[in-house]
């Protein structure tokens, strides 16, 4: 379905981003990966699916490096047809205790990076009259939780940015939508499981159960593979007129 297209997925060396990159690769898209840590393993996993893979290690908190990554992607494959703004970090603390450098980093990586990558991707998408921007927001783009001020602010902002980009391109073949996952067991959430296990002096399994029971009625984690299939839908022809939605895949979290 996506043969000949190029997808750039930010923060795709792990977790949800890698899951989405692989789902798009299974549909035939060539992939530009980004993120920290090992890049060879993720590139090999994508190439095993029969498509081309490239990697750029831009720090998504740095606009100049994002510009460099977008130029690199265009030089590798001609154009970015699909942009998945996924890179994100978390920090948990009450507002009065929130380290200001963590606030700045979360706003830069979880929100401003999507603005920068999108503004740089849109001209070529519009020229081709086809493009897909998929923003990985969160249930925290729709509702709040205590001790996540920067994350909730960034994700609500990302849902807002999604709607604006959708509207500005509404008469074109370029769409922009957001995915709002509930709990997904990735390194980002494992840190929160570990912190809870320590604070409550309980096992890792017990901490996972507590985390789910608090917010997610299904008592199940959403998987990167399931989120990847939703991204594939947003990239399909069936989603040609799906514009500006913030679609939660969250085991019922936001339905409560
Ligand atoms: P993860 O920690 O497994 O992956 C994050 C990725 O972002 C990694 O590849 C990491 O290297 C990359 N990254 C971090 N900082 C970066 C930077 N400055 N520049 C470039 N890359 C950077 O986390 P995840 O759970 O897969 O999260 C992916 C996205 O999904 C995030 O935006 C997160 O907010 C969102 N999300 C996660 C959950 C969840 O439960 N895990 C729920 C809702 C939304």
CATH architecture heading of the largest domain: 3-Layer(aba) Sandwich
| Major sheet characteristics | 7 strands, parallel
Strand content: 5-15%
Low-confidence stretches: none
Bound molecules: nicotinamide-adenine-dinucleotide
Gross morphology is globular
Fourth-level CATH superfamily of the largest domain: NAD(P)-binding Rossmann-like Domain
The whole-angstrom Rg is: 18 Å
How would you portray this structure in words?
It is a single chain. The chain has eight helices and seven strands. With 256 residues, it is α/β, with parallel strands linked by helices. The chain has two domains: 6-183 and 223-249, NAD(P)-binding Rossmann-like Domain (Rossmann fold, 3-Layer(aba) Sandwich); 185-221, no CATH class. It has a seven-stranded parallel sheet, sandwiched between helices. Helix 1 packs parallel to helix 2 and helix 6 crosses helix 7. The longest helix has 29 residues, at 100-128. It is globular and about 55 Å long. The structure holds nicotinamide-adenine-dinucleotide. Nicotinamide-adenine-dinucleotide (NAD) binds next to helix 1, helix 4 and helix 6.
Short description:
The protein is an alpha/beta fold and 256 residues long.
Features:
256 residues; alpha/beta; Rossmann fold; 2 domains; seven-stranded parallel beta sheet; 8 helices; binds nicotinamide-adenine-dinucleotide
Please describe the topology of this protein:
Blueprint: E1 6-9, H1 15-26, E2 30-34, H2 40-47, E3 53-56, H3 63-77, E4 82-85, H4 100-128, E5 131-136, H5 149-168, E6 174-181, H6 187-199, H7 204-215, H8 224-235, E7 246-249
Parallel strand pairs: 1-2, 1-4, 2-3, 4-5, 5-6, 6-7
Helix pairs in contact: 1-2, 1-8, 3-4, 4-5, 6-7
The structure holds nicotinamide-adenine-dinucleotide.
Nicotinamide-adenine-dinucleotide is lined by residues 11-17, 34-37, 59-61, 86-89, 109-110, 136, 138, 181, 183-184, 186-189.
